[in-house]
Amino acid sequence: MTGPTPLTLASIRQAPKAVLHDHLDGGLRPATVLELARDCGYDQLPAADADTLGRWFRDAANSGSLERYLETFDHTVAVMQTPEGLRRVARECAIDLADDGVVYAEVRFAPEQHLEAGLSLDEVVEHTLEGFREGERLAAEAGHPIRVTCLLTAMRHAARGREIAELTVRFRDRGVGGFDIAGAEAGYPPTRHLDAFEYLRSQHAHFTIHAGEAFGLPSIHEALAFCGCDRLGHGVRITDDITDSADGPKLGLVANYVRDMRIPLELCPSSNVQTGAVPSLEKHPFDVLARLRFRVTVNTDNRLMSDTTMSREMHKLVATFDYGWSDLERFTINAMKSAFIPFPDRLRIIDEVIKPGYAVLLG
């Protein structure tokens, strides 16, 4: 090597990547959705072949509305109600991420949405974790090792936050790394689940909160000031607290706090455009936040709905903001620094996998 490897989608696939914000029920293979639907007798799918079904998910998600975007999950969740379905989806998730060069992944899902076939919350988590471990084993055998950590999500509109928080703590030594709340933000502030967050803090457990995606700065403020989250899921609306001045960007109290405390932002470029959180990729605040040295991370959110991968997300950012390998390395290390695994494990992946991988690409 006499210089950096050219930045292409194919070469980015070779780079070691870390994803913190990936939804299990948003990353199914269309063919798997069809097969699981046949197996469980679900007959409400909008298409009968994999290609058409994949297009339907993408088109339905491109509405510009978070609420409409979330409706697509009715179909994926419906086929994830059995032990076999949960294990298969989790197994394929790990394999697909590893095939894309992801070496560390945090994948989240809401156990409360997978009880229709009679499984208990504990059984749902057990089968999902078993699928992740199977996927890790198969990925390693194929030469693409990956570590998958599971995050358990409570739905904002429901009242099971404390129950899912306790489930998180119960499984935290068995592959569950933390807790999350998700769903429509408007009308469902994070403080509705304050008892869950108080319990998690009492147990020294990690948690992130979907905030600042469809709703603005008040959602971020509550997530930080009252709930005490470790990370912000999306958080793009932090720019509501950044104004232009003659001396450059001026940060308000919340934005300053997020930057000063190195609160990670789980930014999902393609998804943020689809849900209307930002008007276009060119106007996505990712670059502004990166230049202001916020701890920005690149994420997929929902690979099926956005027809994306980590490599595609990075490639889009390169094409839009003219990033180089050193930028992608920084975003990846940002993610690993922010992972919900022990500090020595984070350092090992950074020092033994990520830095050597980018050193080769940088030439």
UniProtKB/TrEMBL annotation:
E.C. code: 3.5.4.4
Annotated keywords: Hydrolase, Metal-binding, Nucleotide metabolism, Zinc
Domain (Adenosine deaminase): residue spans on this chain: 16-355
Gene Ontology molecular function, alphabetical: adenosine deaminase activity; zinc ion binding
Residues under site feature: Important for catalytic activity: H234
GO CC term, one of those recorded: cytosol
Residues holding Zn(2+): H21, H23, H210, D301
Cofactor(s) the record lists: Zn(2+)
Residues that coordinate or bind substrate: H23, D25, G183
Stored PANTHER family: ADENOSINE DEAMINASE
Protein name as catalogued: Adenosine deaminase
Native source organism of the sequence: Nocardia uniformis
